[in-house]
Uroporphyrinogen decarboxylase (Aristophania vespae), 353 residues
Amino acid sequence: MTSNNFSSPQKTSVKKPLLHTLQGHEVWPPPIWLMRQAGRYLPEFRAMRAKADFLTRCMTPDIAVELTVQPIRRYKMDGAILFSDILILPWVMGQSLAFVEGKGPVLEPIRSEADLKLLDKNRVLEATRPVQQTLSILAKELPDVTTLIGFAGSPFTVACYMVEGGGSRDFAQTRKMMLQNTPLFQKIIDLLVTTTAQMLSAQIRAGAQTVMLFDSWGGLLPPQEFRQFVIEPTRQIVEFLRAEHPSVPVIGFPRLGGVMAVEYAEKTGVNTLALDTVTDPTKIASMVPSKLALQGNLDPMILLNGGDALVKEATRIRDSLRGRPHVFNLGHGVMQQTPPENVALLVDSVRNV
Ligand code: CP3
């Protein structure tokens, strides 16, 4: 079966089913998009990869538009997530960044006041202009039913990469700074709160209809630190965005936050709580307000594996959240080895009610 055989996203009369859901209304069947839906599992993505390195792809509007649109063309996803990266922010402030094949991101680590002083927060709006341009082209070109999603990393997760100098299993250097030089770590977080809020606000002005905060690593923290470095900075960003763009919903993704996700949902003011794979959707649903949209949470491994087990699990998640606003998604990004036809099967299963 080709992707062209699929029915249009809405069986409801709602213009943008995803946006409507994020605003707290139930849509049935639920809208669907996937984290990292643009990526190396798609042959058309790999073809573009040969043309430019990752940062160039992010910062060249024509390329970023094409990469954002590829999964929409193929699967008619309800949401189009901007093709970019959470590490663009420290990079535009002046921190060196390279994506090394087989290793991931490599940054010149920030370990002292002097390192931090080298960053220039006043460059963010100007330097992210190509990203804003990408969004304004997308806002014009995407189908009317598709919701355009902007995003950023949460201050804690971006700080992890900035201090560590790259990916890590435990971000030990970062957490050491957090404990040994809390004022310096807090300064990094505060810088990221201000610049993330400004950058997301610019994304919205350029055409993003919702924004998502990716907090991939907050789950490393004990409750007190989670409150201080995850919940409070997120609350400040949401407060800023609410004041500037009252009707634009914010999605928060406190990955591996465990039971702290409930407090996160309550205190940050996000409209939607994105769930990781380990969270039981019906359990968390009973612990958060009924108007709060939930997003998630299929295991990317089940998507990669495919077949009847995929259909069964996708249907189970969809049906278990019926009766409240729910955006179907994964609990983390699409894995590189995922067969593209499995994504088609997933979208079809979720829409086929
Ligand atoms: O979801 C989407 O399709 C939109 C684009 C997007 C990317 N990264 C593109 C990307 C988004 C939303 C991100 C978020 C991101 N980036 C996170 C948070 C979510 C998560 O996965 O936990 C994090 C931690 C990063 C940092 C990052 N970027 C890492 C660790 C890597 C290396 C891993 C890898 O796959 O090589 C990246 C690179 C990256 N970001 C790629 C893409 C498509 C792969 C680059 C390539 O194609 O060469």
The two ends are 18 Å apart (CA to CA). DSSP finds 17 helices and nine strands in the chain. The domain at 18-351 is CATH 3.20.20.210 (TIM Barrel).
